[in-house]
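Class prep. Protein, please:
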Amino acid sequence: MKIIRIYMFTAAILAGLLSIAFAAKSKETTKREGNTEIVESQKDGKIEFRIIYTYDGKNKVKGEYWEAVDPKEKGKKKPQSNILSGTPVAKNYEAVISKSKVVDQSGIEIDVEKNGFILKSVKTVKYNEKGFPVHVAFRGYTSYPVLGVFNLKTDWEYSYDARNMLSGVVEKNMSLDSLLLNLAAENSSKIERDQSGRPVKITRTIGTVPPVFETTEYTYDGNTTNMKTTVYRKCGIDTKSLSAMPTETISTTYGQNIPWGGMKKYNFEMGKSVTAFSVYDEVNKKQKLDGSGFMKMNIIKKGMFMKNMYDYYKNEQKGPKWRMGELPDLPEPYLLYKDNVWYK
């Protein structure tokens, strides 16, 4: 029976890989007129979506994500909900948002239908005189494995040090779903760097009463910018006390030549860019996921481990948190890199 299960699991992995390899690919075209750029994606001869960017000089100041509406569907499709919707946790956060002084002044509306499309996400950006983002507003939907779909209204304010490196982030949440994901109406992050500019610790203060803290600590390979480890101590919602509290410690060990800055760290490949990954349950004080010996595992154990960590991988790649806490890169509001897209 054990052998049969192993064969079935291996076959399932192969089937999944084959389905990805032979799936029809989307084709994108880009057209720009003046300060407006339209990116259109088509699949099997049908338009999937359009992204409309507005420019101010070289900078994108607005992005709109429009999904094609199926003409066979009558009326507006009701957005899917998430597993926290309607729970005591959600009701508790409804009270929090009603007392919050954070007000949405963006004037952005989503779910607007026009010419066979529906507006699902909007992001606006303001820049400083050096061209760095200082204020970003996002209104739209995002989905997470297991958790479901969230309707977000979140603003970010960024500050920089004398070396023009990101030093702080203030996050303001103006919808119930935003609070459920980010735990408070207003959170702030402080980035500590060494003399060479490498981040050594990031502290995210979650504005609950009393406040709680998430931290990310970095170690490096000698004097290089290549990460050796990151340890992310994460917070979540305690469904019993209905309050935010430390829930997990996520530890990552990196392969060779993976710098803290740039895109290379997004290539989360076990056995290559990442050599060990583990999750410790801070609530129940036990190991939740242990990939510390990944390099020594056989192919079946490696496959099972990858299956178990899939949700962590997908959930944590919703930038700028990623899987290791707040990232200290120069913010890229319109990031498009593999599975990381700004509009979802």
